């Protein structure tokens, strides 16, 4: 009878756990972001707690507001600017349907070898623009729906980041108690190796954070150098924007591609070619080399495990997979390593 009662209690606990996870499912990603940000910036939280005389709530509130100003406001600004550009494209298409294409820009005729052909092609588009847009109208609807879906994803991403910054306040305030609770839970589940695996997860997340921020800083510096050499105005601001956008996949091209197009529009073709090559192979290329190296540095994971974790995590879970992928593979690799060692040490009859 006792065993049946215990089994019933375990079933009820599992049911409650499943129901709790179901309720929390819409917020899992934001909770993970909040936990990662809190852990990565915990030394700063400790410093502020000492400055505020041990008042953890005050330090947590101050640091959360600081993150809001540094992260959430620039993302909201970026989202509104993207919406303005989408609106400009829509207005341009409508004007072309009514008035046709504008006159060819003067610099187009000055393109070496191909200038006259490009001008004639532009005039042909102007004469046949209405008919071409009529034929392309069904496809424009699909393109519009695609842009609408991407805009919705950007909006949900901004909302998720903002929500994670709300959660980070509670991780700051209750961090030590949450850590102790997780350690007790792991001790009940896996015994004496709990602390080792908890430190493994913490170390992997810390290296991923260092890799992401370190790569973003390197890309920002390289972008700044390229903008200064090419003579792009506002190079310092563009470098800062590159740093922010480097935190998301395929972010830096959103900065250096428009800068390259601007140089070509001004007729500075040599610098446009230079910045295009610099952006493709240096600014964007460093992400594929430096980030896996920084993540694997300081740990005992093989580089191939880190590469599979980074790229596989991105494909499977999106940007949050950058942290989930290497962590999962690190735990799986360590479990298999421990299991193989214990099997080798076990005496055989």
From TrEMBL:
Q: What is its main location?
A: membrane
Q: How does it sit in the membrane?
A: Multi-pass membrane protein
Listed Pfam families: AI-2E_transport (PF01594)
User: Which keywords does the record carry?
Assistant: Cell membrane, Membrane, Transmembrane, Transmembrane helix, Transport
Q: What InterPro entries does this protein map onto?
A: AI-2E-like (IPR002549)
Give the stretches traversing the membrane.
60-80, 154-172, 221-249, 269-290, 302-335
Keyword Transmembrane applies: yes
Q: Which domain of life is it from?
A: Bacteria
Q: Where in the cell is it found?
A: Cell membrane
| Keyword Membrane included in the entry's annotation | yes
Q: Which family does it belong to?
A: Belongs to the autoinducer-2 exporter (AI-2E) (TC 2.A.86) family.
The name on file for this protein is: AI-2E family transporter
Q: Which organism is it from?
A: Pseudomonas fontis
The organism's taxonomy opens as: Bacteria, Pseudomonadati, Pseudomonadota, Gammaproteobacteria, Pseudomonadales
């Amino acid at each position: 009878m006792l065993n049946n009662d215990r089994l019933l209690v375990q079933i009820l606990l599992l049911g409650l756990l499943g129901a709790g996870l179901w309720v929390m499912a819409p917020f899992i990603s934001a909770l993970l972001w909040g936990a990662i940000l809190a852990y990565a910036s915990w030394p700063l939280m400790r410093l502020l707690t000492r400055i505020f005389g041990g008042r953890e709530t005050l330090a947590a509130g101050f640091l959360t507001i600081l993150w809001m100003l540094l992260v959430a406001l620039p993302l909201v600004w970026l989202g509104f600017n993207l919406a303005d550009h989408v609106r400009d494209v829509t207005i341009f298409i409508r004007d072309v349907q009514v008035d046709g294409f504008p006159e060819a820009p003067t610099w187009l005729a000055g393109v070496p070898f191909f200038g006259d052909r490009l001008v004639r092609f532009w005039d042909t588009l102007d004469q046949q623009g209405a008919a071409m847009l009529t034929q392309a109208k069904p496809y424009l609807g699909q393109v519009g729906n695609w842009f609408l879906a991407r805009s919705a994803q950007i909006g949900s991403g901004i909302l998720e980041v903002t929500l994670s910054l709300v959660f980070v306040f509670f991780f700051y305030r209750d961090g030590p108690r949450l850590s102790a609770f997780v350690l007790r839970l792991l001790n009940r589940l896996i015994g004496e190796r709990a602390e080792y695996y908890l430190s493994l997860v913490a170390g992997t997340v810390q290296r991923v954070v260092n890799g992401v921020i370190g790569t973003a800083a390197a890309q920002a510096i390289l972008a700044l150098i390229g903008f200064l050499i090419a003579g792009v105005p506002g190079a310092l601001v563009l470098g800062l924007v590159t740093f922010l956008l480097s935190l998301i996949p395929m972010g830096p091209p959103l900065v250096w591609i428009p800068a390259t197009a601007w140089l070509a529009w001004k007729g500075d073709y040599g610098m446009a070619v230079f910045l295009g090559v610099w952006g493709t192979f240096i600014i964007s290329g460093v992400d594929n080399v430096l980030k896996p190296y920084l993540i694997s540095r300081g740990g005992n994971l093989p580089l191939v495990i880190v590469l599979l974790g980074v790229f596989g995590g991105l494909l499977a879970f999106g940007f949050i997979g950058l942290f989930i992928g290497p962590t999962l593979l690190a735990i799986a690799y360590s479990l298999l390593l421990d299991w193989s060692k214990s099997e080798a040490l076990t005496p055989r009859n």
